[in-house]
Amino acid sequence: ADSSDADVELPIIRHQPEGLEELLARTKFTKMELQSLYRGFKNECPSGLVDEETFTLIYSRFFPQGDASSYAHFLFDAFDVDRNGALCFQDFAVGLSVLLRGTEQQKLRWTFDLYDVNKDGYVTKEDMLEIMKAIYAMMGRCTEPALGTSAPAQHVELFFQKMDRNRDGVVTFEEFLATCQEVRGSVGLGEHPP
């Protein structure tokens, strides 16, 4: 066998982003903001695509006191709307635009979709418990006051007491939206990053 074949380098496949004009139309960012976001994205992801492992590594830097891998998985799924297993700049920019500049209803829809772990259109107690466990793991053991192991389940019960208006064991987007809109003044929705 010819060993020179092993030395041949394959070209790196690079993802080409949509045109700037199309992204300007799909997001609520300015041209300068998109250019700045793109520079940062390319700096972290030179190929133009981010797989879940890379996304998790980047996101985990913000939570060094805990384990952010589970929550990063849910966030990755929320940004990966076409379900192809990779985030391109467009996925990132469109999702970030909703979170930072979207209407209240768009932000709530994005959050609901994040909580709908299996993407069946409902948030179940199982979905919510997975999310809560991931959030508690991400926050780490340094949380003051220290949280017991039952804290995620207690949080889920409170969530369902408020959100499951017809008591059928699932929360629909309509229930989620109605409850959030009723309490938006005291909660400050949309002011906290994911």
Automatic annotation (TrEMBL):
One of its GO terms (molecular function) is DNA-binding transcription repressor activity, RNA polymerase II-specific. InterPro entries: EF-hand-dom_pair, EF_Hand_1_Ca_BS, EF_hand_dom, Recoverin. Residues 67-102, 103-138, 151-186 form the EF-hand domain. Keywords: Calcium, Lipoprotein, Metal-binding, Myristate, Repeat. Pfam families: EF-hand_5 (PF13202), EF-hand_7 (PF13499). SUPFAM superfamilies: EF-hand. SMART domains: EFh (SM00054). GO terms for cellular component: nucleus; voltage-gated potassium channel complex. GO terms for biological process: regulation of potassium ion transmembrane transport. It comes from the Eukaryota. Belongs to the recoverin family. This is CSEN protein.
